[in-house]
Amino acid sequence: MFVAACNFDAFVSAFTSFNSIVSLTMVAVDRCIVLTRRNFTGRPSSVCFNVISITFAVLISALGAVCPIVGFGNYVTDGSEIYCTFNFFTKS
Question: What is this structure's pTM?
Answer without folding.
Answer: 0.78
